[in-house]
Amino acid sequence: MDVFRVFDSLNYMPNMLLGVEAVGQAGGVVEATIAYTGDIADPTKTKYTLKYYVDLASELVRAGAHIIGIKDMAGVLKPEAARILVDALKTKFPDTPVHVHTHDTAGAGVAAMLAAAQAGANIVDCAVDSMSGLTSQPSMGALVASVQNTDLETGLKLKDISTYTAYWRQARHLYAPFETTTTMGSGNSDVYINEIPGGQYTNLQFQAYNLGLGDQFEEVKQKYTEANEVVGDIVKVTPSSKMVGDLAQFMVTNNLSKEQVVEQAAELSFPSSVVEFFQGYIGIPHGGFPQPLRDHVLKGAKIIEGRPGASLPPLDFDALKASLEEKHNTVLSDEEVMSGALYPEVFDDYMSFVQKFGPVKHLNTRIFFVGPEIAEETEIEIERGKIINVKTLAIGNLDSETGIREVFFEVNGFMRTIYVEDKKETATLSFHPKAVKGDLGSVGAPMPGQVVSIYVKESDKVEKGDPLVVLTAMKMELVVSAPKSGVVKQIHIGSGQKLSAGDLLIDIE
After folding, report:
1. How do 467-473 and 449-454 pair as beta strands?
2. Helix or strand run (H / E) with residue 111
3. What whole-number distance in Å separates Cα of residue 483 and Cα of residue 465?
């Protein structure tokens, strides 16, 4: 791999220059990429203008960019805006290739990419037909057909594209549970309003479902727009987009308008991603942070000045690898160590899963997601030339006392039996007391989640704003702070406990 697309979630130049310099020093091709938001063709939108994008491109070219990338992560680059932007870049940098990336959420992706190509773009992104459209990229076949017998002829044959499409159409069926069709069966032009990135849409939908907001996803999308306005109308791509999504779901869960978020910010316990954004952990947004909201959200927390990574201590990968291998009692690859460094909690969960269920990566997709049918025989190649034949024979009755079922199967012709907990049958309803609304001393969970840490003990004295509890749900972490000063009277939760929104955490008197 020698072409590197370098971009930043806020278009924060100090972050981007670090990547540009690193790729250049390694001898790679630098595709310095600008994340696109807003609408440069709309004269009423004055924050992200044509001048803003051209100025960014100028800095990147001076820094050593070989290619200028335009990353339209939400698919909001309309055809006329694409023509204006690409034309301006090619006029100013005629010898620098321009690469345009988009998503087809609204259904205008083909038109936008045609406009970009006609304005002089050297590369536009698309997806094979059976994997295109909606939050993916526009159709490859449609783009190729649209430029046939023109100066933009690609040389690709539609027959070859159709053959390629057929294969991926079959493969796509295996991943049906992850489709966006629950809330998005067709193109949706409201993306021009909410600006949700194509890569985030499915994750946000899944996260909302697991937070109990599946039936309120339309409201989540509306609150996404409001959350973006609250934080200052920022560029939204991972991780800044996740922060806006976290705030949107927080607003829905707690029935908050954007005005209430601003007015009550000093008393609210925001998701950690929101707090860290205002601290400056991912950089500084164009136009700065909104005040006094920033001070109210931070409640005295430290502020990161300048490029966040500049103040990070060096990471000792050898020491981390030794620590992780001891913790998980196995030999880890460099890639696994990198995963542990970037996502420590997620990696720990992954390793626990692997240790419990074994090398499930050898199972085919349908068997992993759905499981085998009775009497179905499955071949599992655990290493080159070593194949195990597994045949499921029968599933026994449920033991009502233990919730265990006996499962019978054959492995290479030999009978085997295992005992498996039927989690659907053993799931029980638990009732937890709710926090008293209007009573600041009755501290409730602002969102559904699991208790990660409890920072206080009963009889402890706490000051307003002190951290009490950390909750997590679907990679969204939230620190619940004391809404008042006082003494911890009673703790109603334990570490690892799963909670619903509004469940009572702590009483303060």
Report:
1. antiparallel
2. helix 109-118
3. 6
For residue 499, give the H/E element and its range. Answer: strand 498-499
Q: Which two tokens stand for residue 313?
A: 């201590």
Please choose, from the candidates 100, 22, 91, 35, the residue with its C-alpha nearest in 3D space to the C-alpha of residue 63. Answer: 22
How far is it, in rounded angstroms, from Cα 172 to Cα 470?
38
Question: Please, what is the angle between helix 217-230 and helix 240-253, to 10°?
Answer: 120
pLDDT tens sequence across 330-387? 999 999 999 999 999 889 989 999 988 888 889 988 888 888 899 999 999 988 889 9
**What length is written for the chain?**
509
Beta carbons within 8 Å of 307's beta carbon, 6+ residues apart: 12, 14, 15, 18, 283
Spell out the residues 6+ positions from residue 242 whose beta carbon is closer than 8 angstroms to its own.
200, 273, 475
SS3 letters across 417-442: EEEEECHHHHCCCCCCCECCCCCCCE
| pTM of the full structure | 0.82
Cβ-contact 30, 66 below 8 angstroms: yes
> Which letter does DSSP use for residue 372 in this model?
P
Contact of 226 with 246, CB cutoff 8 Å: no
H-type alpha helices, 329-371: 334-342, 344-357, 365-369
Integer Cα distance of 391 and 128 in angstroms: 36
Are 233 and 226 in contact, with CB atoms under 8 Å apart? no
Give the integer Cα–Cα distance in Å for 173 and 189: 26
Smallest CA-to-CA distance from 299 within 466, 422, 59 is with: 466
pLDDT digits (tens, 9 = 90+) for 3-36: 999 999 999 999 999 999 999 999 999 999 999 9
Q: Are strands 29-35 and 3-6 parallel, antiparallel or unpaired?
A: parallel
Q: In terms of DSSP bridges, do strands 404-411 and 414-421 run parallel, antiparallel, or are they unpaired?
A: antiparallel
d(CA 418, CA 406): 6
Walk across the sheet containing 386-399 and list its strands: 377-383, 386-399, 404-411, 414-421
**Cα–Cα distance, 146 to 116 (Å, whole number):** 13
Contact 265, 293 (CB under 8 A): yes
Helix (H) or strand (E) holding 27, with range, is none
Nearest to 35 by CA among 239, 224, 173, 316: 239
